[in-house]
Amino acid sequence: xxxxxxxxxxxxxxxxxxxxxxxxxxxxxxxxxxxxxxxxxxxxxxxxxxxxxxxxxxxxxxxxxxxxxxxxxxxxxxxxxxxxxxxxxxxxxxxxxxxxxxxxxxxxxxxxxxxxxxxxxxxxxxxxxxxxxxxxxxxxxxxxxxxxxxxxxxxxxxxxxxxxxxxxxxxxxxxxxxxxxxxxxxxxxxxxxxxxxxxxxxxxxxxxxxxxxxxxxxxxxxxxxxxxxxxxxxxxxxxxxxxxxxxxxxxxxxxxxxxxxxxxxxxxxxxxxxxxxxxxxxxxxxxxxxxxxxxxxxxxxxxxxxxxxxxxxxxxxxxxxxxxx
Length: 325
Ligand code: UT7
Known about the structure:
The structure is a single chain. The protein is α/β, with parallel strands linked by helices. The chain has ten helices and 13 strands. It is 32% helix and 25% strand. α4 links the parallel β4 (76-80) and β5 (105-109). The protein starts with a strand and ends with a strand. Bound molecules: oxa(dethia)-CoA.
């Protein structure tokens, strides 16, 4: 059977680095608090000419360059994002125009931090039906434009960036072979961001506080660990695999304590978990594709190895995905 194989990866981070020491000057926080509670020491924050679609386009160009595939050969562009610089058109349409990918249709998906994993599942399904398709899948975020820089509960956590992969069909046994995706909309208000419609007092809900990320951090923490553990355990069982079969686990990079908890519960050895959170922060839908690209460039992804992705985010959305590299 044809499976969706990642032919190339690329990523792009904004130039400006904001350290915890910089944040100490902006809100009532300390480097000690941020490092010990989150594992984050610095993050990249977008500046001029680093809009979401511009970071996405650069990441895409790098992924395409690895594959030797021309932008005009692309059939589809999907961007997972919750921080487009415009509500309409989609970031994917801007990327399509920038790349000159004239033969590709293009759209965004919103599954918050789980967006890239949802997108990979989607791309995999397209490719199973049409194995010759060439799909560009990007996770891109500029959440620096969506956080309240006076709210120490959230502004210290997030970073900006983009990661991209190019996918097509292969029959050599490699590629995406399983996924377990979930959502629970009843928990929407644990992590959310209002839209400008909320400016209409008739449509505004009681909790409206502006178009900023709002979050119940400790609730998200507890749900994240349990949900990812259940998803991974169920997915491995379904495919008759154990943690010992996994070559590398690439989790959503949100908080080092979430990742340590998850690692302990699943029994994954430290060296099998890829972590770049310390210098990236939480880049939401971009976190897994940036990590994938960095893992690839560092030689951590070995051809034929099984790679496990797991993620969670606003929605709530969460899930895990297996692929053979
Ligand atoms: O992609 C998904 C995105 N969301 C997440 O991943 C969030 C998951 N949750 C977390 O990462 C953690 O819950 C946080 C890092 C957000 C918070 O850590 P915590 O250990 O759960 O702390 P807390 O929310 O229970 O707050 C403890 C204290 C509070 O003070 P009081 O009420 O005990 O006096 C907070 O006001 O820490 C305070 N606090 C801070 N202090 C210094 C919260 N943020 C900060 C800060 N600097 N930046």
